[in-house]
Na+/H+ antiporter
Amino acid sequence: MSTLLLVLVVTLGVIVLTPVSDRIRVPQPVLLTIFGLAIALVAPGNPLSFDPALILPVVLPPLLFAATQRTTVTEFREHAGAVFTLAVGLTLATVAVVAVVAHAVGLPWSVAWVLGAIVSPPDPVAATAVARRLRLPHRLVTILEGEGMFNDATALVAYKVAIVAAVTGGISGGQVALELVEAVALGVLAGVVLGVVSRFVLARIHDAYAETTVTVLVPFLAYVGAEHVNGSGVLAVLALGLYLRTYGHDATSSGGWLLGRAVWSYADFLITSLVFTLLGFELVAVIRSTGTGTGTGTDTARLALLVVVTLVVFRAIWIYPAAWLSRVRARRRDLPVPTGWRESTVVAWAGMRGVVTVATAVALPEVVASGEPLPNRAEVVTVALVAVLVTLVVQGLTLTPLTKWLRVGSDVDEAAEVAQLRLRASGAALEQIRDEASTLDEDVRAAALAQYEGYVTAQQSIHQARAGEDEASDRRALELESVLRRASDVERQLVLEARRRGEVSAGSADEVLRDIENRALRDFA
């Protein structure tokens, strides 16, 4: 099978399996990993291999930046304790525990620490895919996403230090402390500085395509720039993304914001899908190399089993006491109880390894400073990839039934919340227009009032038609959606026909179509 044909097959698999995963209620990363494994087993050789030098700087910046655009600093501040406990405390503890287990099995300490750093960070993609589909509590989704972002930074800093020790043959405690301080301080500084510069540039462009180009470019600049000065590229991207998410919106045009959201949503989907699919190819390549004598068999399998069990068990051992302590502190301060035992169980089971583990495993250097091969490299890569595969498949396939069985769900009706927020925003705008009414031209005042009064009235009517929880309200909601869809279809067809006949320019037609599609997306959300 040629490389081009294989790429087409992989792309087709992503296209087909993405909607299928939603229908059969299997997390998309899990299904794509299994698909990649199956394709790789029948494909001769390994034509779709990673370039280790490009994995971290190419794959991580867009994934991390896209993740920051789904949350806010305020949400993290509200759950800072839980996120810090998981993203820093649990990650570093996992590094140490896995290193001890690996050394007990026979790995040298230097390589054991590297393995611990590689497998320590869970990936939030599969977990949050399940969480959002099942409408888990918002705080739970925020905690999982926060852990997924910041544990990458913790794990990669630990990975960087462990690699230096393994390649050079040793590193002192002072050097470790210096590496950690430099990585954190310089990484955050680089991200914030680039965020300030980016906001300044965005505020002066006022073009959707140029603005989106800036937001696509700066995560890579942040990562590479921070790494160049010995900072953490991951922390730089996170700091940049959260800064722009918090302070950059008012510097961006409406078109730039819409286009940027679409671009980053697609980039997140495409890169994640391809990485999980290609995971299967890397695993098969390692299995084949083991069969040719470059790795070990029984010892590696035993180590992989012990590491996977350690990851699952130790996460639960850490989370339950931490959650209990947070509940005790909340009750003493008369604060809302953050999580119950059911939610803690979901968090404990949502420890699937993913993109970062794959990237760091495949990016392992092959030789040390003396020119000798890195000891046990094949075993480390094999164990890491097996940990990803087993946790993704086993935990990923069982997370949905577990959350349903525990009846962990959200009480928040997001559709109603969205409708209420729209009404509040439109009402505030209407009040502003009325306050300025005496200073406006009569026609201008009439036009502005008609637009917002009409919108508020329409939203109130839609809300009333959808209100209620009985069968009649469900029927009205479906009927309303059907009517609005038919009306949008008529609008769309009229504009398309006008464009087809040459009655209007393509640009004018596209502008009207954008309005129609935005309204349809809003009405059918």
